[in-house]
Specification:
- 33% of the residues are buried.
- The chain has a five-stranded antiparallel β-sheet, with no helix packed on it. A three-stranded mixed β-sheet has the order 4-1-7, with no helix packed on it.
- It has helices at residues 2-30, 35-56, 60-82, 87-100, 103-116, 122-135, 143-154, 159-171, 175-187, 192-204, 209-220, 222-226; strands at residues 233-240, 254-260, 267-274, 280-285, 302-309, 321-327, 334-339, 341-342.
- Strand 2 and strand 3 (267-274) form a beta hairpin.
- The radius of gyration is 21 Å and the shape is globular.
- It contains twelve helices and eight strands.
- The protein starts with a helix and ends with a strand.
- Helix content is 53%, strand content 15%.
Length: 344
């Protein structure tokens, strides 16, 4: 455990340096510090540590810490509304939202920075693209993917760009390109947990010996594999409670079905459908993971939520209709959710 915290401290120091260098340059150029920028830098450590504990295990005290962190981020957001031309402020607000798993808000904040930057640098390109991908995975095949390719062309050893560019290649069926990028990523020496995910994906790419063997085995054991940790899934029946109508949230409402850690936090996996699909039966699986390589099977218990949202965003809004229940990925293969609550 001591080794972990030493490594974490080194990584956090590097992250703070990454945030502080642009602020220092601005200080030398303008003669003053960006108040919003400094505030966001100070948020980085408590947010990161808070998120580590929130993901690792449920602790009641973490919820209070998260509320305090959200208060600080909201204050930063309000400051940005008063100082909308502060590009670094928008960028750091977007990164803060990414830390908290609020991907739609991160995308919006980074879009503000993007629109105001005369010539976006590679760091902003990658941050903006990442927020796009985490908010909508299909964007890897569009503008977000193109931005990632641009960064990778200029920075061939950028590990984040290599990872997302590899996922783009997989989605496009460019398996040789994906293999090359994942191999290069491994050669750069990523952390052990990331390296394990990369190796697993390499083994599953078409053409590898492991992929060929697993494909043959899968033909005769698809049903058994469905419950394996590498491919958890749950069949979710969703219906409306008595007297509840999606008309209350508007004609363009969306149904979101997702699993998250007890007590909140970013979703592990999400399915998004038109609200008109209710009542219906849906499958939530590792294929719907928000972050590649993350599995429902990584958790002993999750919270299963069905929400009808007027905006289609994962963050709950007043007036949204929802239902929620505990879910044990290792045991539960089916679940029923009756939407009968209204968010306040």
């Amino acid at each position: 455990m001591t080794t972990f915290w030493i490594a974490a401290s080194v990584l956090m120091a590097a992250a703070l340096a990454f945030l502080l260098i642009p602020l220092w340059r601005q200080r030398r150029r303008t003669g003053r510090w960006s108040v919003s920028g400094v505030a966001a830098v100070l948020l980085a450590v408590p947010i990161s540590v808070g998120l580590y504990y929130a993901v690792r295990t449920y602790q009641p005290g973490v919820l209070e810490e998260r509320a305090n962190e959200m208060k600080l981020v909201n204050e930063l957001a309000e400051r940005m509304r008063q100082q909308p031309d502060d590009i670094e402020g928008w960028r750091l607000l977007g990164r803060s939202y990414l830390f908290l798993g609020l991907y739609d808000k991160a995308r919006d904040a980074l879009a503000e920075a993007w629109q105001r930057a005369p010539k976006p640098d590679n760091s902003l390109k990658l941050d903006y693209a990442e927020s796009e991908v985490l908010a909508d995975r299909s964007s890897l095949g569009g503008e977000a993917g193109e931005l990632i390719e641009q960064v990778l062309a200029e920075e061939p050893s950028n590990m984040k760009a290599l990872w997302y560019a590899a996922q783009r290649a997989v989605g496009l069926g460019q398996n040789a390109t994906a293999r090359d990028r994942l191999t290069r990523l491994l050669q750069l020496g990523p952390p052990d947990n990331i390296a394990q995910i990369v190796r697993a994906q390499l083994e599953q790419l078409p053409g590898s010996e492991a992929a060929q063997g697993s494909a043959a085995a899968a033909q005769g054991s698809a049903a058994a594999a469905q419950g394996a940790e590498a491919g958890r899934s749950v069949r979710v029946k969703v219906r409306l409670g008595e007297g509840v109508s999606p008309d209350k949230v508007g004609p363009n409402a969306w149904l979101l079905i997702f699993a998250r850690a007890p007590g909140g936090g970013p979703p592990v996996a999400v399915v998004r459908e038109p609200a008109s699909a209710v009542p219906g039966e849906f499958v939530l699986s590792d294929a719907d993971a928000m972050i590649p390589g993350r599995s429902l099977g990584d958790f002993e218990e999750l919270e299963l939520v069905a929400r009808i949202s007027a905006t289609g965003q994962a963050e709950q809004q007043p007036g949204d209709l929802y239902a929620e229940r505990p879910f044990h990925p290792a045991e539960d293969t089916t679940a029923e959710l009756v939407i009968d609550k209204v968010a306040q």
